[in-house]
Design goal:
The chain is α+β, with helices and mostly antiparallel strands. Helices cover 26% and strands 33% of the residues. 45% of the residues are buried.
Length: 601
């Protein structure tokens, strides 16, 4: 692909809610620009992971360079940056959009504007992007393009009367999309002779080349042999290869201001090439870094333990390899009296946690027990010390701390008007503080609440979908910490504390949570030859108890007739045996027992 002048380069992204046809549209654009042949054609070309293909979601950003002959007869270089659509990957999306000058806003012509669409549009507007509305799935019988155009105008404030009508499935309207990109998205600016300044918007580990970095060159140029300096980590590496995807990897001599591509420099550690960081030249650095970089903090924490303790080393190796490709996962060793050796891992959100667990089990052939997810609490101890605690079992007993701060999030729930009652009730139950309700003309409502993150982690999303028959969509962003009346609830099985089942609950609902947990545990703990007591306790005070009854043998069956004292004697003898058995027996808890914590509302 020949290099083109800067004024004929177009960098654009596609933003959409999950399942609105973003990846399918990217496939059609690649076919239309003849980037792939008929033989190579398959669905979800840019989603390279098996998991992405199966779930139909984008997990990693991808950038592909396309050559397009426009209506004016000139050849343009289009750099399409495909981004994840889920709220958990919000930061990656913001950096990918910072690498563009324009964005296609894809909205499902049947579903209308949804939560993640709104969130990503605001990020695009913050980066001063030219936004082109595209209505997809126009071929569906339930499509309602005129209403959805009104929604876009009202909820987002974009003029949508000239929105492009497409069907990514059939290929309808793809030419119009490409012409709109050429005519409406501004060409990149940036001096190609200035000192190098490039933005990293994704990176991953390649076993042959080390860390591969996806960059947008803002100023200057990168070529093989350039001494690269990473701004935040102050690491210096010599550039080995420069290239781009089209969608096949292609090497080039250099990348200049305005272009998007990949580079490798024998980088061994992915933390040296962080998403959002700036790359410059060591001998001729730029004056300041590009704005917007931040270290991504995990929001949700869970314990990962191998079912078979022999697999501990395999899990350790698997996590080390996985973190090479996803620097947002954190992990540290943890021991549990109930589950043995494992790791405490931090994730960006619940979907991220689910994906990492599935990748570990699938790619590394491991059987894992995952404890209930928790969040990071700040514990103010009586002596003035402040602890950051991500494991409920580590929270001190009542009386040993002054207060606990829990993380809060600002949530926006988009929902059809008829479901607003149950949503408000759900948020109130979950200790939410209402921030406002905005009504749209098309019958959709945006409900804003400040909620504790811990309440969202426990089954909130499932309840939300159940109450609204799947129509609600949710987005959230961190909103600092707030002091709360929290206590630690411990679960005891036969008097033994099972640390992996400890949870943190609000003092007002602790009694009910403890009772519900015991009741649920009773269903999954297998019956033994003796009674098994399951108790919930706050500190030394037991707040609930249930008993899993022993399996019984009718020892009195052979006593027919005669004196009652004979039967009593046999029953007493049996009772003593059961007591002795209980003293030496231990209860094996199945995996479901650890998941019951999640099922309790």
């Amino acid at each position: 692909m020949a290099s083109v002048p800067q004024d004929r380069i177009r960098n654009f992204s596609i933003i959409a809610h999950i399942d609105h046809g973003k990846t399918t549209l990217a496939d059609r654009i690649m076919e239309q620009t003849r980037a792939i042949t008929e033989r190579e054609r398959k669905a979800q070309m840019l989603d390279k992971m098996d998991l992405e293909q199966e779930r139909g979601i984008t997990i990693k950003s991808q950038a592909v360079r396309l050559a397009y002959i426009a209506g004016d007869g000139k050849e343009y270089q289009l750099n399409l940056i495909d981004t994840p659509g889920h709220v958990d990957f919000h930061y990656e999306v913001s950096r990918s959009l910072a690498a563009c000058e324009g964005a296609l806003l894809v909205v499902d012509a049947a579903q209308g504007v949804e939560a993640q669409t709104m969130a990503n549009v605001y990020v695009a507007l913050d980066n001063d992007l030219e936004i082109i509305p595209v209505l997809n799935k126009i071929d569906l019988p339930v499509a309602r393009p005129d209403e959805v155009k009104e929604e876009i105008e009202e909820m987002i404030g974009l003029p949508a009367d000239e929105a492009i009508l497409t069907s990514a499935k059939t290929g309808l309207g793809i030419d119009e999309v490409l012409e709109a990109v050429v005519n409406l998205v501004p060409a990149p600016t940036g001096d190609r002779n200035a000192p190098l300044k490039a933005l990293i918007f994704d990176s991953w580990y390649d076993s042959f080349r080390g860390v591969v970095v996806l960059v947008r060159v803002v100023e200057g140029s990168i070529k093989k042999g350039t001494k690269l300096k990473f701004w935040t980590t102050e690491q210096v590496y010599e550039c080995n290869t420069v290239g781009f995807y089209s969608p096949h990897p292609t090497e080039v001599k250099s990348l200049s201001a305005g272009e998007v591509g990949i580079l490798s420099a024998s980088i061994k550690d992915i933390t040296h090439a962080r998403v959002g960081d700036t790359i410059t030249e060591e001998g001729n650095p730029c004056e300041e870094a590009l704005p917007g970089f931040k270290t991504v903090q995990p929001m949700v924490f869970a314990g990962l333990f191998p079912v078979d303790s022999k697999d501990y080393e395999s899990l350790k190796d698997a996590l080390a390899k996985l973190v090479l490709n996803d620097a947002s996962v954190t992990y540290e060793p943890e021991t549990s009296a109930a589950l043995g050796f494992g790791f405490r891992c931090g994730f960006l959100g619940l979907l991220h946690m689910e994906i990492i667990q599935e990748r570990l089990e699938r790619e590394h052939n491991l059987d894992l027990i995952v404890t209930a997810p928790s969040v990071m609490y700040r514990v103010h101890k009586s002596d003035g010390e402040v602890l950051e605690v991500d494991n409920p079992a580590m929270i001190p007993d009542v009386g040993q701390f002054k207060s606990i701060d829990e993380p809060m999030v600002n949530t926006a729930i988009h929902v059809p008007q008829e479901y607003i009652g149950p949503i408000v009730q759900l948020c109130e139950e979950r200790r939410g503080i209402q921030k406002g309700i905005e009504y749209g003309s098309s019958g959709r409502v945006q409900v804003k609440y400040e909620l504790p993150l811990a309440e969202i982690v426990f089954g909130f999303y499932d309840r939300l979908k159940t109450y609204t028959r799947g129509y609600a969509s949710l987005e959230y962003e961190p909103a600092g910490h707030r002091k709360s009346k929290l206590v630690r609830i411990d679960i005891l099985v036969n008097g033994e504390k099972v640390d992996a089942l400890s949870i943190v609950a609000h003092a007002d609902t602790a009694q009910r949570r403890g009772r519900d947990l015991c009741t649920k545990m009773k269903e999954v703990v297998p019956r033994q030859m003796y009674d098994v007591a399951i108790q919930a306790a706050i500190g030394s005070r037991v707040i609930s108890r249930v008993t899993v009854k022993a399996m019984r043998k009718d020892v009195t069956a052979k006593c027919y007739g005669g004196d009652i004292s004979r039967k009593r004697k046999l029953l007493e003898k049996q009772k003593k045996g059961k007591k002795r058995m209980k003293a030496v027996g231990n209860v094996e808890l199945p995996q479901e027992a650890f998941l019951t914590v999640l099922k309790v509302d």
